[in-house]
Amino acid sequence: MMGPSHALSGAAVWLAGSWALDHFGGYAQSPLAVTIGATVCAGAALLPDLDLSGKVTRNQGGATVARTFGVFSLFLAEVIEKLSLGIYSITRMPRDPKRTNGHRTFTHTLPFAGLVGWGTTNLCAAYGKWAVLGVLFFMAGLALRGLFDKWAERAGWLIVTLTSGAVAFLAASHLDADRGYPLLGMAVGVGCVVHLFGDMITRSGVPLLWPVPLGARMWRMIGIPDGIAIKAGGPGEVFVLRGLFTIVSLLALLAMFFPGVLNSMHFDAAAP
């Protein structure tokens, strides 16, 4: 899927999950906490594509996420791409094809999602609000780049960076430490997993079960049959999936914070 679809799917899953926790588990969150969680999850839903690098010195190419902070994020993507390729090369089996890039390898696995989620949780627990500020800054930038891709492209990476900094500072200064910190790591991990499932419905698939070998291959791509796969950037993704994610997000927000609106809508629909 394209960057905007990944980001929107992350926000939709987090909002729907927050409503489920509130409705079935009695775990209520403030509007700020829900907004922060949805923003972080939306940003993390772009994180696995940091393994697609571009031209660092020209500030060109790469995935949507790699261009978020200009040459800085492009350089980070270059490092992650080479690291992912190294992991692939070291762990591949004879039937796994040789590769010249690391896209859709290590960062597109469940261990990666678990690692960054666990790492985020422990980082915030160890270093407090300074770590939270850094996580929010980075993830807010990715979310802005994904959810508002046209605006971000026009505004440029410097405006996106400054906006991310302002969002992170305002959010961190009001975040409830007892409930906000643990959820940040969960939001990062969930966002990465959402990305994996988003890529699984495209033709390329992802090595979801690595490092468990499947037959004679370690890096077997798992996805749905090509006949029903979503074409990246096609009408099925742009109109159907993004429309669905938007509806889910709006319904979840209404159910959590404006239940009266949903009740009146249900009443009106049921009226003769």
Describe the fold and architecture.
With 272 residues, the protein is mainly α. It has one domain (3-270). It is built from nine helices and two strands, in the order ααββααααααα. The chain has helices at residues 3-25, 31-44, 71-91, 110-147, 149-155, 157-174, 177-200, 235-257, 259-270; strands at residues 54-55, 60-61. The chain has a two-stranded antiparallel ribbon with strand order 1-2. It is globular, with a radius of gyration of 19 Å.
Helical fraction: 55-70%
Low-confidence stretches: none
- Straight-line N-to-C gap: 42 Å
**Main sheet summary:** 2 strands, antiparallel
Order of helices and strands: HHEEHHHHHHH
Output the structural class. Answer: mainly alpha
- How many structural domains are formed by the residues? 1
Oligomeric state of the chains in view: single chain
Q: What is the global morphology?
A: globular
Strand order within the widest beta sheet? 1-2
Give the total of beta strands.
2
Strand content: under 5%
CA-based gyration radius: 19 Å
Helix tally equals 9
Mean pLDDT: 89
Quick gist of this model?
The chain is an all-alpha fold and 272 residues long. The chain contains 9 helices and 2 strands.
What is the topology?
Elements: H1 3-25, H2 31-44, E1 54-55, E2 60-61, H3 71-91, H4 110-147, H5 149-155, H6 157-174, H7 177-200, H8 235-257, H9 259-270
Antiparallel strand pairs: 1-2
Helix pairs in contact: 1-2, 1-4, 1-7, 1-8, 2-4, 2-7, 4-5, 4-6, 4-7, 8-9
